[in-house]
Automatic annotation (TrEMBL):
Key words of the record: Membrane, Transmembrane, Transmembrane helix
Name of a matching Pfam family: DUF2510
Region (Disordered) location: 78-118
TM annotation in the entry: 56-73
Superkingdom, taxonomy of origin: Bacteria
Compositionally skewed regions (Low complexity) per UniProt: 82-93
Regions of compositional bias (Pro residues) in chain numbering: 94-112
Annotated protein name in UniProt: Membrane protein
Record domain DUF2510: where: 7-39
Entry-linked InterPro entries: DUF2510 (IPR018929)
């Protein structure tokens, strides 16, 4: 009884690294890499080497080898997988991606007015006062009012302590006066006593206020609100005296009570120029940057 090799995948005689499909009669053009599913080696049918079945199988294998060699050698023919290029592990690696360009740091938000070194911020009343050249922020006094002073100091005329020739502070004004003008007229007297009279410890660094005269009294548009200012020239018991101003206007921060900005400039060569009072007044702005109201606004004057 003769036996034939059953159909299946067998090592390609011309390319051991490839398996080729044997259809039971002849090799086909179908190949796959060695090691795939199916038989790992050719199945040799049992029988005597000299038998007729063996001779037929060997003849078929020889014919298939010749056909396979012709296919492999002709242009465009099937090629074994190992002839198509180096294995994946040997392929040149892709170039490493370029490192990301350094990010340009964002400018970031503008500093809050309280952190801005060019202004004195009054958070409670919603205003920012400009710091002129030669001025600096100071620790708030006993009433915790935001304060700025001139950078230079000198010995107080009435004692051994040091005094600042220029002082400006902002505070909420508690007043029952009906108009801003009357509020300013009352407040300037208190400001003169606070800044040139007797301090909280009972000392009189300027010898106290002995007289005064009004040198300015007018409406003023401040931070988009119409207010009023009164300026005194004060005479003190010791030293050249000075100038005191009270500036009263509605709070742009929505606080029901008005704002009072108090100024004290020493007279004489050590004091700052009076023009700085007007410079600071013109430079007062709301903390939110808005400037509604003022000249041409529908907001009526408060007094």
């Amino acid at each position: 009884m003769s036996m034939t090799t059953p159909p299946g995948w067998y090592p390609d005689p011309a390319a051991p690294a490839v398996e080729r499909w044997w259809d039971g009669t002849a090799w086909t053009g179908h190949t796959r890499p060695a090691g795939g599913a199916g038989p790992a080696a050719a199945v040799v049918p049992p029988g005597r080497f000299g038998g007729r079945g063996t001779r037929i199988a060997v003849a078929a294998l020889v014919v298939a080898a010749v056909v396979a060699a012709a296919v492999l050698l002709r242009p465009g023919g099937d090629r074994a997988p190992d002839a198509q290029g180096p294995p994946a592990s040997a392929a040149p690696s892709a170039p490493a991606p370029a490192p990301p360009a350094p990010r340009t740091p964002d400018a970031g938000p503008s500093p809050a007015p309280s952190e801005d070194g060019s202004v004195l911020a009054d958070q409670l009343n919603g205003i920012a006062l400009p710091l002129p050249k030669g001025w600096e922020k100071a620790e708030p006094g006993i009433d915790q009012a935001p304060t700025m002073v001139t950078t230079g100091d000198h010995q107080c005329p009435g004692g051994t302590r040091l005094c600042r020739p220029g002082r400006v502070l902002s505070r909420t004004l508690a007043s029952t006066a009906p108009t801003h003008r009357e509020m300013a007229e009352q407040d300037v007297a208190e400001a003169a006593e606070q800044l040139y009279g007797e301090d909280v410890l009972g000392n009189k660094p300027y010898g106290g206020v002995t007289a005064h005269r009004v040198v300015a009294a007018r409406q003023a548009v401040v931070a988009g609100r119409t207010g009023y200012l009164v300026r005194w020239r004060v005479t003190t018991g010791k030293g050249p005296g000075g100038y005191v101003q009270s500036l009263v206007f509605p709070s742009p921060g929505g606080v029901g009570q008005p704002v009072a900005v108090r100024f004290a400039f020493d007279a004489g060569p050590d004091g700052p120029p009076l023009s700085a009072m007007d410079e600071i007044t013109r430079g007062i702005r709301p903390l939110d940057g808005s400037t509604g109201g003022g000249v041409g606004s529908s907001i009526a004057p408060g007094g």
